Amino acid sequence: MARVVAPAQPRKLVKVPFVELADGRLQGVVSSGSDTGRVYVSSITANTHAYHCSTNNNRPCGGLRGAPCKHLETLADEAVLQYGFDRVARYLRVEPDVAVNTGAALLHSLDARHEPSSAAVVFSRFLRHLSYLEVPGSTTALPELHWFPSTRTAR
User: What pLDDT is attached to residue 132?
Assistant: First the structure.
């Protein structure tokens, strides 16, 4: 049975509605600070520390000018709130300096470089995540989640 882990600290979902440690990356969706109708898909790869940020239709973030943008900093900070600093650092495979204690500081302590990547997979996962929020409460199983083991014993 998959275990649901409570957030390390409460998060506000307005700025970063979706953050996950998956596919060897810290990745998520970050709301635009200037346009309420725009979101950015941001990611940091675990081994190489390559980062990328673009709109959901793959337009590069204007803040990527040789260093991680504010969307990436916000994503890293929210990941620390969701998963805890130690777990994020372990996932990204870094040994942070003792003085580093925020996601943004962790991001800036990496020997990172920009490497373009597609936003489609992460944005698709976000949309799937949103679709589950619209499902009315029920005790019947969802067909796409049939692979989860049953929590009840058969009689």
Answer: 73
